[in-house]
């Protein structure tokens, strides 16, 4: 489970896992985390490493990608992924940079983010939102918060806010929070951002496939994004096109 499903070693201490093992065999005692780390994992690693090396020897062509990430213990890691047949391939995008270069959109995103935070932290506000959703015949969808490490969460947040903006505005008015209402004239900017980011979100989903070879799609899809953003007249669209041009020159 630890290797196949990427479960943490601490799973052996989880109450649910312990109870599950007791149902299978009440006499069995799972090894401790320390025992796993010192005795079992090194052997499993050596075995899996050998099997992987044997498999890679039969691969004629592959694509290598690297990714930097930080663990919860704030330790930096550089991950190298070898893509072949059914392996995963990641595509890095320039969307975060483009958004930060647009001051007006950045400020608007912060406003929406603050509104979403308010509804997430206030049970009264979230309850009233559901009531107003029902009154306005809107879907009972929760507002989505932006996650800094995932650019497409901005797209999802803005998209959901547009869907629920009438219920949000009504709720804020009833709770004497009118000063938190985002002006209606900003709706056009949000819709434009959503429209511009939509093809990038679609490409991200396409390139995140785990059971398909996606390396061969990088060039044609990047060219397609450049063509889409070339015709855009918005600040965001122009910035995206410039960033794409820097990373994927024609």
Strand content: 5-15%
The count of β-strands is: 2
Output mean pLDDT: 76
Characterize the main sheet: 2 strands, antiparallel
Overall spatial form: flat
Total of domains:
2
Radius of gyration: 24 Å
> What order do the strands of the largest sheet run in, or round the barrel if closed?
1-2
Question: How does the SSE layout of this entry go?
Answer:
Blueprint: H1 15-24, H2 33-56, E1 63-70, E2 76-83, H3 95-100, H4 103-121, H5 123-135, H6 152-174, H7 187-207, H8 218-230, H9 235-247
Antiparallel strand pairs: 1-2
Task: Describe this structure as you would to a colleague.
The two termini are 45 Å apart. The protein has two domains: 58 residues, no CATH class; 153 residues, no CATH class. With 250 residues, it is mostly helical. It is built from nine helices and two strands. The longest helix is centred in the N-terminal third of the chain and has 24 residues. α4 crosses α6, α7 packs antiparallel against α8 and α8 packs antiparallel against α9. A two-stranded antiparallel sheet has the order 1-2.
Summary, kept brief:
With 250 residues, the protein is mainly alpha-helical. The protein is built from nine helices and two strands, in the order ααββααααααα. A two-stranded antiparallel ribbon has the order 1-2.
């Amino acid at each position: 489970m630890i290797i196949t499903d990427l479960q943490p070693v601490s799973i052996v201490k989880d109450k649910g896992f312990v109870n599950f093992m007791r149902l299978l065999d009440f006499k069995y005692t799972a090894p401790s985390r320390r025992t796993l780390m010192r005795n079992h994992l090194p052997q499993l690693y050596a075995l899996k490493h050998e099997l992987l090396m044997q498999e890679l020897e039969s691969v004629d062509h592959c694509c290598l990608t690297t990714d930097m990430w930080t663990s919860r213990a704030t330790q930096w890691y550089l991950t190298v992924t070898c893509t072949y047949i059914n392996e995963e391939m990641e595509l890095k995008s320039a969307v975060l940079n483009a958004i930060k270069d647009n001051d007006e959109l950045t400020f608007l995103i912060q406003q929406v983010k603050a509104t979403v935070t308010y509804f997430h932290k206030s049970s009264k506000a979230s309850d009233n939102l559901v009531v107003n959703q029902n009154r306005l015949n809107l879907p009972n969808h929760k507002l989505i918060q932006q996650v800094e490490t995932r650019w497409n969460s901005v797209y999802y947040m803005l998209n959901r806010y547009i869907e629920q903006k009438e219920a949000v505005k009504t709720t804020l008015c009833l709770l004497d929070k009118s000063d938190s209402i985002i002006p209606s004239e900003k709706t056009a900017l949000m819709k434009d951002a959503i429209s511009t980011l939509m093809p990038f979100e679609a490409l991200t989903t396409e390139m995140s496939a785990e059971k398909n070879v996606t390396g061969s799609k990088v060039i044609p899809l990047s060219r397609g994004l450049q063509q889409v953003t070339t015709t855009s007249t918005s600040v965001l669209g122009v910035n995206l096109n410039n960033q794409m041009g820097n990373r994927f020159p024609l």
